[in-house]
Fold Chloramphenicol resistance protein.
Amino acid sequence: MIRLSYTLVIVFHLIFFSGLGEANASNQLVSTVQQLESKVRDLQAGDTLFIANGEYQNAQLILNNSGKAEQPIVIRAKQRGKVFFTGDAKVEMRGEYCVLDGIYFKDGNRNSKEWKSHGPGLVAIYASHNRVTQCAFHAFDQANSAYITTSLAEDGQVPQYCRIDHCAFTEKITFDQVINLNNVSSKDKKKKGIVGIPMYHRIDHCYFSNPRKPGNAGGGIRVGYWRSDYGRCLVDHNLFDRQDSEPEIITSKSMENVYYNNTYKNCYGTMNLRHGDRQVILNNFFIGTDTKREYGGVFVWGSDHIIANNYFNLPTTLKKRGQAALFLNCGAKADEHALAYDIRIVNNFFDKNNGFAINFSALLDRRIAYCKKKGVKLEFPHDLYIGGNLFVSNKTAKFPLFYKHDDSDRNILWKQNKAINADIGFAIADGLESISKKVKGEREDIYEKYISKELITNEALFYNVEGIDLDIPAIIAKGLTGKPLTFEQVGPAWLKEIPGTYAKTGKLSKEIQQKFDEVTQKRAK
């Protein structure tokens, strides 16, 4: 059943796709920066502004006018991928129902003094019902900012129902996330009584591949700022391929977000439920195809989450975080580093990970010191429902399946799990069947053979998220489906090859590496 709020977004997208190529009186074509900036000021609902092939240096697009749900304002490359925004470029989407389509952002040189982390992005969305689609952003420049932000307007208005889809974000060498979704200002993020309203944004079918930066420097996506904010955003069908920017591939900092059917391939970090309760990680693939670096799965803070139908196959794991596919945080409830508790972990496939399948005492030493310093009660993850999971290991594995530093019960309920050729790690009285058997076949066949009849299908255990058009309990009942995404399935349709060298080799070209070194050295001063 489609909920009303998301219906409006979907209708907007369908109308845009069906009518974009039609010739009508409002279609216009520009071929210079001056024409582009001038015509943008006059666009009205239903207008489409085509941009001729070529380089548009220092283009500053400010879209103040609004379209309508059935008549969006569209700014589109005449030939997608053949229009380049370079130099001191920026785009501000201040009107509603506007679409930016088919632009390639590269070779920028913005003034780094005029841009900062957690400020507006290269493309800043200030109003609701806007869309950025079929665009590429490659190593744009040396100014620290996100590539795309949803930003609060000067009057405090929060953008809602925006979509970022079929875009590529590669070799970003500056600090701050690639995409920031905001519903409170940074200065207000921890003030009592200020709660970020639901955003209802969607990020889908995008490609991310960006190099490691020193420190906590900005990952792929940030959703919200603080645990009391509502997100209600859907992040689905994206490929994170060596998305190495920082330890947090995604930092989810708000409540009620859903992460569905994404692929995390060779990523030096984890998908983090960092702030905010009641979030869903559903049918994602966490995989490594080499051992160039250490790779991660999911790190969980907070409560009332669902971790379901995911696949974990990591040939290396993150030593500093505790070498696991799934990490459950120790800490104090409702804190900066919130305790992970009251979590459903169901119908997942943990397949020969070179580390623990689940670390029930993640970052314990750090949390002991932190809680002592703050004077808050340290607790360990508890009240967990672990059911319908398949754990496959081998007799030569260096790690048991589970790590828990103590012998306490923690009120963990185990139901209908199976472990094949595994050292369990600690005693489990019931709910985990241990099997010694040679396992052959493809991922789908193994999952079907050994766990499909044990899946947790009681829909009463789960919930849907208001405003997101997914029947989450029904999806969970089906178990893990599909395959990891490939580059051909995401990003702009016109982008036939991955830009740069990092995704393939884990290294930047000499030219981009030199620029990257300049950025990091400047930050260190």
In short: The radius of gyration is 23 Å.
